[in-house]
Structure formats: C-alpha cells, structure tokens
C-alpha cells in the first residue's frame, strides 16, 4: 500500500509520502514515492505515486526522458512544461503511454492497471498548484475549499484532515497535520510505513524549502505520535458518558463496581 | 453505505448501526440495520447488516421464518439456536440460501452479491459472544485481543477504535468510543447518517440493557461531536511544530509574519 498527501494552503505546499511497497504481505520493500523535479529560479515540481510500482516508475522515467508527442514528432520532458496545467497534462499523457504498452497484457495477467499521482509545485510565471491525476490520465485540482488531496490508503487519515486543515493555516501546522494523518494511517494499515518523505514549497520561491526524510526512530515524529495518542486518550476521558447508560452502569457486574470505587 | 460496529468488553457488548441506505447519491433512505431477537431469560441476539439491502433483509426474514435444512427436512429459526456458534452458522446458511436463489441473476445484472453481518449476544447456558459473518457465510469471532468488529464503511472510524478500545474498559466508555467512531465515519462519508441504533447487552442478564435510537438533534450525541472536535483541535495545537520547519517559518510571506505577531 501507499499513503501520500498534499496540502496546499495560502502559505505554501506540503507533500508527504510513505515508502513502503508490498507484493503480498511476505514481500515488503522500501521505495521512494515522492519525486522532486527542481531547477531553482525556474521550477519546483513534486510527484507522489500510488498504485502499481512498475507503472508509476515508468511514468516517472518518461517524465524525465520525454513523453512522445506523435503528432508533432517531439518528446516532452516535465522540466519543459510552461504551466502546472501543462505539467499535469503531461503526467496524464505519460500514464496513457504506459497503458498502451502494458495495460492489456497486465489485465490479461489479472494485474490491475491501477495508479494515481499527486503533482504539486510552481513554474516561473504561474502560481503554486496541486493536482491529483487518475489512472486514465484525467485530473482534478486542489482548491481552497478543500485544501488537500490524498492518494493510496486515504481513508484512515482523512478524518484528521477533514477537521484540522484550512487554507489559512500556517505551513508548519499544515506539515504537522499531514504527519498526524500519516500516523493514523500507519497505525491502521501495516502496508504504510516509515521512512516518510517530506517536501515543503513556499509560494514564489521557486525552490524547495524543505526536502526531508523521516527515518524510523526520528525523535520529533516519535514524539508527535506519543503526544497525539495521549491527547486522544485525554479527549476520550473528557467527554461525559452517555446519559442513557446510567441505568446500565448500576447493573454491571461487581468487578466493574469495585473498579469504579477505586478510581 | 453503512457503518456498524460491535465492541465486546468484559462488562458487555455494544452494537451500533447507522440507518442510511442509498441506491445512488440521488436515492437516499432510512432503514433499520440493527435487528434484535430477544426472549428475556432465554436469549438476546442482535444482527447488524451491511451491503445489498435486498440480500440482508431476506437473510433477516429467513432467520425469523426459518432457514431450510434440506437434509433433515426441517426449518431452523434463529430463536432455536442453542449456542452462539450455531446462531452464526445459521446466519451463514441463510446467506448461502439467498445466494442460491438470487446470486447468479444479480451478478448477471452487474449487482454485487455483497453483504456482511455482525451477530452479537448471548443464549442461556453460553457466554456473550460477537461474530462477523462474510458474504460466503464463513465467519470470525471477536476476541479480547481486538475487542471490536466493524462492517461497512469501516476505515474512517477504525483509528479511534484502534487507539481507545480495550477489553477492560467500562461498558459506558465502550459505547462512548463507538459513538466517536461513528461520528468520524459520518463526517467523512455522507453515505453514513443518523438516526443511529444502539444496543447494549450485559453478560448473563439475557435481556437488552439498552435499546436506543439516536435521532438527529439528540443533545448528547450533538454535544459529543462538538466536544470531540474541540478536543482534537486542542490536541493539534498542543503538539509542537516540526523542528525542521524553523527555517521555513522565517521565510514565509509577510502576511504570515503579521499573523504570527498578532498571536
């Protein structure tokens, strides 16, 4: 599995991705899923991948080497895209090119052609933007109303984002919230795991502010996980019990009664 | 969609189920998914259903009217089960009976024969138990190591349960935690909605301690949702920002600087 998340707030873009891949539960490896294309002063782009690793790696290679444009007889590299919209289109074209070569044979072998991407960043002359690209090459763009996009194992980490992320939050808080979302996902799905790759881009800087890998045992992330667990336990405790449970409480067995007397 | 959850702790069993059904987003209705079979002093059983409503309702009807046992030439009703294991087997048999009649034709119409059940409760002479029954009629039983089972849209509400539920927790806290899990699910999936049906059974009482429907606007559940949101916001705030973001913070744009000065 995979979990990748992009958060686009007024003050910048955060993208995070885990690195665990698995071909069955007995074949687990570490692969980078967050790929940065950067030429300071000109563009800073990042692509996070989920789904079949052979497909996503081929797409990344095509974006480096150039995607065929048969009509024009040209190859287009991601670095040549003049706008983020064109960059997203190029990722879509690369997906379709891989599908033409491998899609049918993969499906004949009962392997899903299943892949999705987050593309975030900025190209000189345009704004900082974030897209999610589906396996047919079509895509949607992140907007301030819901300033995050997710791919992969997205459900476990979504409640945290739904509640906490807003377009006006500071970039450091956006990163912190993304990491809490990653933590929730890692706890519930063993297919998502450390290390975690992190990228932060601030508007109009045209370079990455932060490219960082959180390794197992990294003190801040460890501390974040501990604090979040403790805070959730405290939140649980602070909520009163259901009023319609009063009768039941007096009926529960003696051991529970004793336990209550002790606390 | 559907979300149902059963929590089996030392002090009892909690089962909750939402009531929203949908045939497409433009066809949303309210149907009871938590069905109680109760004969005080003899048995108290509850079944929660997820998946295709026509299948789950047929299964419930068969459990009331009797499932054919062709070999013995008899019909077995759920109320006649002598152990919880036999009751779970009977639910499985009922699912397979519905599949024999409808499965092929449904699949020809591209409708998945997709259904799952939670069966919880106690029959005189045996312990309080909880099972999850799959669409092939096979089933697993809940044990103290992981004292909850979920069906339907289970991922959004699982992180809360993973962290908070333990076999030794009090029954009122088990209900509270189930409701928080339901709240997380409802926030992230509009296919899960109020009213919520609740059942609580305490061991060896052989009757339901609580059968309750949480209607929209019910003050306790409203208050629980508000408090949980506030507690999560506070938990977010209390966690320090990533230390590797310090440089970024000094680089963010002026508006953010001003905002920080104000706070």
TrEMBL record, chains A, B:
Record field: compositional bias (Basic and acidic residues): 244-263
Region annotation (Disordered) ranges: 243-263
InterPro entries, sorted: Ntn_hydrolases_N (IPR029055), UCP009120_prtse (IPR016545)
Protein name per the record: Peptidase
């Amino acid at each position: 599995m995979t979990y990748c998340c992009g958060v686009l707030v007024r003050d910048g873009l955060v993208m995070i991705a885990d690195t665990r891949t698995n071909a069955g539960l007995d074949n687990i490896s570490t692969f980078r899923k967050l790929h940065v294309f950067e030429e300071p002063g000109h563009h800073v782009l990042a692509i996070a991948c989920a789904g079949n690793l052979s497909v996503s790696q081929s797409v990344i290679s095509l974006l480096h080497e150039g995607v065929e444009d048969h009509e024009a007889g040209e190859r287009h590299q991601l670095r040549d895209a003049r706008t983020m919209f064109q960059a997203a289109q190029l990722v879509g074209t690369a997906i379709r090119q891989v599908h033409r070569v491998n899609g049918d044979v993969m499906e004949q072998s009962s392997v899903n052609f299943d892949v999705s991407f987050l593309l975030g960043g900025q190209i000189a002359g345009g704004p900082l933007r974030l897209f999610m690209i589906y396996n047919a090459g079509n895509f949607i763009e992140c907007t301030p109303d819901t300033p995050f996009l997710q791919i992969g194992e997205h459900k476990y980490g979504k409640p945290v984002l739904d509640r906490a992320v807003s377009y006006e939050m500071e970039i450091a808080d956006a990163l912190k919230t993304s990491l809490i979302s990653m933590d929730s996902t890692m706890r519930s799905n063993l297919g998502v795991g450390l290390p975690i790759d992190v990228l932060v881009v601030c508007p109009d800087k045209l370079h990455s502010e932060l490219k960082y890998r959180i390794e197992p045992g990294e003190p801040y992330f460890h501390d974040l996980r501990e604090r979040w667990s403790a805070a959730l336990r405290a939140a649980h405790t602070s909520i009163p019990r259901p009023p319609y449970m009063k009768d039941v409480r007096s009926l529960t067995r003696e051991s529970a009664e004793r336990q209550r007397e002790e606390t």
